[in-house]
Design a protein that fits this description.
Largest sheet: none
Number of helices: 4
Order of helices and strands: HHHH
Shape: flat
Helix content: 55-70%
Length: 90
């Protein structure tokens, strides 16, 4: 018997649909947006690690509060057609 390192399809789908994974993806998107904005502002690529640390220090707390409020509103009001602008850079 050989063990496969690949997860079965239902397990992989479960992970992708989990709220924890969705939050990870949303936070990662914000960090990448921050990286782009700061790199453009400074005129050179600041790299992911610097963007990550800078975003955590400057924006993470406010972004999480905003994200929780947004998710709560969506849960109470149903689907919302909203802005795609970053909460951290409004």
């Amino acid at each position: 018997m050989s063990s496969s390192i690949h997860q079965p399809e239902p397990s992989r789908d479960f992970v992708k649909q989990s709220s924890l994974y969705q939050e990870f993806l949303a936070e990662r998107e914000e960090i990448l947006r921050h990286k782009w904005i700061e790199s453009e502002r400074l005129g050179y690529d600041i790299g992911f690690e610097r963007a990550l640390l800078d975003w955590i220090r400057k924006h993470r707390e406010d972004w999480r509060v905003s994200r929780r409020n947004q998710l709560a509103q969506q849960a109470n009001a149903g689907p919302v057609v909203g802005s795609t602008q970053s909460a951290a850079h409004k």
